[in-house]
Amino acid sequence: MDLSVSSDLASIPGSSLDVERIRADFPILGQEVNGHPLVYLDNAATTQKPQAVLDAIQDYYRTGNANVHRGIHELSRRATDAFEGARGRVARFLGTQDPSEVVWTRGTTEGINLVASTWGDAHVGRGDEILLSEMEHHSNIVPWQLLAARTGARLRYIPVTDEGTLALEALDDLLSERTRLVAIGHVSNALGTIHPVAEIAERAHEAGALLLVDGAQGAAHHPVDVGVLGADFYAFSGHKLCGPTGIGALWGRRELLEAMPPYQGGGEMISVVERDSSSWADLPHKFEAGTPNIAGAIGLAAALDYLEGVGTDAVLVHEQSLVAYALDRMEEIPGIRLFGPRDPEKRAGVVSFLMGDAHAHDISTILDTEGVAIRAGHHCAQLLMRRYGVAATARASFYLYNTREEVDRLLAGLETVRKIFA
Ligand code: PLP
User: Fold this and answer.
1) 356 closest CA partner among 285, 281, 419, 268
2) How many whole angstroms from 213 Cα to the centroid of ligand 1?
3) Does residue 2 sit within a domain?
4) Full domain range(s) for residue 237
5) How many domains does the chain contain in total?
6) Of 277, 339, 347, 420, which one has the greatest count of Cβ atoms within 10 A?
7) Which residues have C-beta within 8 Å of that of residue 296, sequence separation ≥ 6?
8) 380 has catalytic annotation
9) What is the pLDDT of residues 205-218, one digit of tens each?
10) The last residue of a domain, from among 264, 280, 308
C-alpha cells in the first residue's frame, strides 16, 4: 500500500517544505497502526528519526566504536573526533563559537538538574528567590523545589493569562534584588506558546538575576541563538528534534560554568586524584563524569545537520500553517475547548483541547483506533492544568513531516469522538 502523501498536500500554504520528500526520509511513518496509515501527532513528546540519524548511529557502531579521550589508537581517535565534532555542531546550532561551553547531558531534565545542583547550591541561599512560571514543565519546577528545600530559597511564579501567554506585567512585582535566577521555557509543551525570552532575559538581568531557558520545545521548532536570547543557560534534548533519546546538551556562559563545582564524580572529569581530594578537568569535561553517550552525540549532530538542510525557520512556519488550519476547523466542533493563543504565530505546532464530556484519555484512545497518535494527560504541567481547572487535555503536536491530510484524519477522528459522546 502506498502511504506517501499526495503532492497537492505536500505544498501547504505558508509552508515552503517539500513534505513528501521529507516523509520519505522517515521510515517509521510508512506503517499502518490499527489498520490505518499512521498519523503521528505526538511530536512534543518525542519526534521520529530520519534515516540520516539512524545511519549515523549505525555507522558509528559498525565502523568507529571505541571509548573517547582514552585510547591511543586509531578507533579511539576517530570516536573522539566524531564525539567532539558533534559538540562543535551543537555549539554552532546554538549560535556560539565555543564548544567548551556545551556540556553533554541525558536531556533537558538533566541539564536543569545540573544547574540547580551545582550553580544553585553555590549561589542560592535562604530568602533568595527563583522565578518560574505556572506554565513550566515539571522538569523546570521540581529541580528548583529540591534546591529550595536544601537552601531555604523561595519559588515564585509568573502567572498565565486566560489566553495562554505569560502575564509579564507581573514581573514588576516578582523581580527584586532577592531574585537569583529566572528559569523559563522557550516554548510551552502543553500549549505551544512561544515565550518572549529575550524580553524576559532583559528584565531578569536588570534585576541582577540570571536566566535559564528550558529549550526542550524551543530548539525543536526555532532557530536558537543563545546570545540573541540573552540566556545564561540553555538546556535541550536531542529526541525532541529528530535525534536519539538519552542525549541532550546544556549550554552555559563560560564564566558561570567555570565557577560552578562539578555535578557528578568519576572518570574523565578530573585533572589529578589524591587520596583525600581531586582537582577538576577543564570545561566541559568537568561536568561529564564517566563514559558519555557517544553514539547519541553523533546521532544528535546528524539530526542537526538534517534540520539545517531543511531549514529550521521553515519548520516553524510549516507547523504554524498546520496549527492555523487545525484551529480554523476545530473551532467549528460543537463543545470543543481550545487552549492556548488563538494567533498561530504566537505558538509552535501544538494544539491542546477538550471536547464536551469526553475525557482526554477517551479522545486519545478513540483516535488511536483510527491510527492517529496524540497525547492525553497533564503533559507534566500540573500547575498549568490547575490554572485552567482541568485535570488533563488532549494534545496534537505537529512537526516537519506532518501534512494537512493528517490534520484532516485528526478531525475525522474527532467527529467519531463527538458521535460517541453525543
Ligand atoms: N521541558 C519541556 C518544555 C518539555 O516539553 C520536556 C519534555 O517533554 C522537558 C522539559 C523534559 O525533557 P526530557 O524528558 O527530554 O529531559
Assistant:
1) 419
2) 12
3) no
4) 54-308
5) 2
6) 347
7) 57, 238, 243, 244, 245, 246, 247
8) yes
9) 999 999 999 999 99
10) 308
Active-site position among 380, 385, 390, 411: 380
pLDDT lower than 50: segments of the chain: 1-11
Residues contacting ligand 1 via CB (< 6 Å): 107-109, 137, 139-140, 185, 189, 214, 216-217, 237
Q: Looking at the structure, tell me whether residues 369 and 304 fall in a common domain.
A: no
pTM above 0.70, yes or no: yes
Q: Is residue 220 part of a domain?
A: yes
Task: Reduce the secondary structure of the chain to three states and give it as a string.
Answer: CCCCCCHHHHCCCCCCCCHHHHHHCCHHHHCEECCEECEECECCCCCCCCHHHHHHHHHHHHHHCCCCCCCCCHHHHHHHHHHHHHHHHHHHHCCCCCHHHEEEECCHHHHHHHHHHHHHHHHCCCCCEEEEECCCCHHHCHHHHHHHHHHCCEEEEECECCCCCECHHHHHHHCCCCEEEEEEECECCCCCEECCHHHHHHHHHHCCCEEEEECCCHHHHCCCCHHHHCCCEEEEEHHHHCCCCCCEEEEECHHHHHHCCCCCCCCCCEEEECCCCEEECCCCHHHCCCCCCHHHHHHHHHHHHHHHHHCHHHHHHHHHHHHHHHHHHHCCCCCEEEECCCCHHHECCEEEEEECCECHHHHHHHHHHCCEECEEECCCCHHHHHHCCCCCEEEEECCCCCCHHHHHHHHHHHHHHHHHHC
Q: Are 249 and 233 in contact (CB under 8 A)?
A: no
Could you report the per-residue pLDDT of 229-253, keeping only the tens digit for each? 999 999 999 999 999 999 999 999 9
- Residue 380 CA: nearest ligand 1 atom is 8
Instruction: Choose the residue to mutate in 47, 109, 197 for probing ligand 1, maximizing ligand atoms within 8 Å of C-beta.
Output: 109
The CATH number that applies at residue 109 is 3.40.640.10
Q: What is the CATH number of the domain that holds 413?
A: 3.90.1150.10
